[in-house]
Amino acid sequence: MLPEPGRTRFVAVKTMKHLILAPLRGYTDAVFRNAYQRHFKGVGEAVAPFVTSIKGRRIKPSHLRDLAPADNRAMPVVPQILSNDPDEFLCLANTLCDLGYREINWNLGCPFPMVAKKMRGSGLLPHPDVVDRMLDKVLNGFAGNLSIKTRLGRFSGSEMDHLIPVFNRYPLARVIVHPRTGVQMYAGEVDLVAFDVCLARITHSVVYNGDINDLEMFHSLESRFPSASGWMLGRGLIANPFLPEMIQSGNRLIGNRNQRFEKFHDDLMDSYRRQFSGPGHLLDRMKGFWSYFAAGFPDGRRIVKRIRKVDTLDRYRREVMALFNDQDQWA
Ligand SMILES: Cc1cc2nc3c(=O)[nH]c(=O)nc-3n(C[C@H](O)[C@H](O)[C@H](O)COP(=O)(O)O)c2cc1C
Prior knowledge:
Blueprint: E1 19-21, H1 30-39, E2 45-52, E3 77-82, H2 86-98, E4 103-108, H3 113-116, H4 128-141, E5 145-153, H5 159-169, E6 175-181, H6 192-201, E7 206-209, H7 215-224, E8 230-233, H8 235-239, H9 243-249, H10 257-275, H11 279-293, H12 300-309, H13 313-326
Parallel strand pairs: 1-2, 1-8, 2-3, 3-4, 4-5, 5-6, 6-7, 7-8
The structure holds flavin mononucleotide.
């Protein structure tokens, strides 16, 4: 029906949410990112797991293998650097820019004591003066865009009070906030009140990250933080690779979920088989994924236990095939 003259015709425009695949070292590498894009929709870009800066001027291509441009065409990728040394950071960041990357992300969130004790990752958060000096030096010598992925602090969320004015002094592309402290690791609640403060006080675009595990959580975050510029999903996306598509489509999924998940699994495994030299590495990698995949199945804990025990690829395949034949969680 034509609209009446003089009346505006409203067309419902569906806006895509900006969903970002989180960096999970040992999981969301180029093999995973590419296989994921072949089977699922809804993710707009990825931040790659961190690469550490290294002493000296020569960076071996093997150090940046996961970021080889030819293997990173499926979706826009932002490389991430773990470093507390501005010269090392610049050397690596400029090398990545030469490969064609426009944005580099600085990891201020890694919680592992081995890393944090050496004042890297979340270990830098109690030292806003060091963060300040690092940003000053890096941004004076870097032609690309710099973004940050941070936690609220290492020991306490109050560390953010001193970090925000530092972040605001520099032209950052965006700040991704995972509202936990470093000592919380990946457990305990995300602090949404503290995230609200970050959103209000950080003058750059702010991306939310943490515990987006289902549609309900996504919708409650989206309505609570309408000014967030994007949403980063990690463990929840690996556990339910359909989640971005569900978010984008209002929960309408195309095709049989069980079959789609199985095809994705097989493609992922084939792709890793081509990358790894021996069956042991392939088996370990695939077993690792099941600590997340199992959440999508009704009997998840039992599944993880059984899969952890397998010691050959043949047994792995038998376990997984039985699972795909028996379960229809994704159907
Ligand atoms: C196994 C594992 C590896 C991770 N590796 C990285 C990393 O390389 N860089 C980073 O910034 N965050 C890393 N993270 C943190 C995630 O990117 C994300 O901030 C965190 O898991 C919270 O988001 P989620 O609840 O959506 O998973 C890692 C998390 C896990 C569990």
